[in-house]
């Protein structure tokens, strides 16, 4: 067993994405340390991973990811902690904290202090330029973006972002993590929103604006994308899955880093987030959702 297979992968942030990525790594039989300052978030993530592993066993790994080996318990490979110091042996860390530039900058400063010199850091940011976060460390050559898709256990492709200072060795370590979790990477250069969210965030915002203006209701907007364009999901169902709080934060980041007012979130979205109607994780966004994932009435 190589040194890397004994050393854990660190995940910072135990929200929707952190839990999903932790599940992917543990399912591959590899140890994981998940850090979050919120005990409530850690408990929620533990439950989400347990549900995800049950689903994965039912699907026998047929929809992406590695199926847990029979008789093994991937959940036992995950250590849940509030202490960054527990990352002291991690060979690779995926940062999944909130989409706020100042919060992520502080996280990277903490990671730089807590982790060994050779640890590679990947940010799962939706839009913050990788080099902005790399600048908060003494190892900018060991920082890159790995933008996993949601739900991480079911999506086999990751947008890999190479910052202007990201080195070849860091990219090779990222490739190891992808191989381990049965995923492939598509490589892009650094910039606000990279490719995915430079385009998707505007689409989600405009779809909400169309509802706000009364041109069509949410169900009709999404039906246009499914029936006319053949998309598997419309932009409003996609936004419910991502979380409108994450989308509003990402639009602010895009506006901050491009200076372009086209990334201003529409009033309808801002109001929904203020009321806690953030989508699937809250049970209500443009659609209503049950714990089993069923979709109900639209706005
Ligand atoms: N939700 C998606 O579909 C999606 C997809 C791809 C990328 N992303 C990106 O992934 C990141 C996480 O998104 P999410 O949807 O999981 O968000 P989330 O709000 O579900 O989770 C964020 C977590 O970070 C924790 N946190 C707060 N401060 C922290 C700190 N200082 N150190 C460690 N953890 C801290 C919070 O307690 C919370 O558990 C964001 O950058 C987001 O833009 C989200």
UniProtKB/TrEMBL annotation:
Record bears the keyword ATP-binding: no
User: Does the keyword field hold Transferase?
Assistant: no
**Pfam name, any one:** 3HCDH_N
Question: What is a single molecular function from GO for this protein?
Answer: (3S)-3-hydroxyacyl-CoA dehydrogenase (NAD+) activity
What pathway does the annotation place this protein in?
Answer: Lipid metabolism; butanoate metabolism
| 3-hydroxyacyl-CoA dehydrogenase C-terminal domain location | 193-288
Q: Which UniProt keywords apply?
A: Oxidoreductase
Tell me where in this chain the 3-hydroxyacyl-CoA dehydrogenase NAD binding domain is found. 9-190
Q: Superkingdom of the source?
A: Bacteria
Enzyme Commission number(s) = 1.1.1.35
The record's family statement is: Belongs to the 3-hydroxyacyl-CoA dehydrogenase family.
Q: What is this protein called?
A: 3-hydroxyacyl-CoA dehydrogenase family protein
Q: What is the lineage of its organism?
A: Bacteria, Bacillati, Actinomycetota, Actinomycetes, Kitasatosporales
């Amino acid at each position: 067993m190589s040194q890397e297979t004994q050393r854990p992968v660190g995940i910072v942030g135990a929200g929707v994405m952190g839990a999903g990525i932790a599940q992917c790594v543990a399912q591959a039989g590899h140890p994981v340390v998940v850090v979050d300052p919120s005990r409530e978030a850690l408990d929620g993530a533990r439950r989400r991973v347990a549900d995800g592993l049950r689903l994965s066993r039912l699907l026998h790994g047929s929809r992406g990811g590695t199926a847990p080996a029979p008789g093994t318990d991937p959940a036992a490979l995950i250590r849940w902690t509030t202490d960054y110091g527990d990352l002291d042996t991690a060979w690779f860390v995926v940062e999944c904290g909130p989409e706020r530039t100042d919060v992520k900058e502080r996280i990277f400063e903490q990671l730089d202090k807590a982790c060994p010199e050779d640890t590679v850091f990947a940010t799962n940011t939706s839009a913050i330029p990788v080099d902005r976060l790399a600048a908060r460390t003494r190892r900018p050559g060991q920082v890159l973006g790995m933008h996993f898709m949601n739900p991480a256990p079911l999506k086999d492709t990751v947008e890999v972002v190479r910052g202007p200072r990201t080195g070849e060795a860091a990219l090779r370590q990222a490739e190891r993590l992808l191989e381990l979790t049965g995923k492939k990477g598509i490589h892009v250069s650094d910039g606000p929103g990279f490719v995915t969210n430079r385009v998707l965030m505007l689409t989600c915002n405009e779809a909400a604006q169309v509802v706000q203006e009364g041109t069509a209701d949410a169900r009709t907007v999404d039906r246009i994308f499914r029936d006319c364009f053949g998309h598997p999901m419309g932009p409003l169902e996609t936004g419910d899955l991502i979380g409108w709080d994450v989308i509003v934060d990402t639009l602010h980041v895009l506006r901050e880093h491009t200076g372009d007012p086209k990334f201003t979130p529409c009033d309808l979205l801002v109001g929904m987030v203020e009321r806690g109607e953030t989508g699937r994780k809250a049970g209500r966004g443009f659609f209503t959702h049950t714990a089993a994932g069923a979709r109900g009435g639209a706005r």
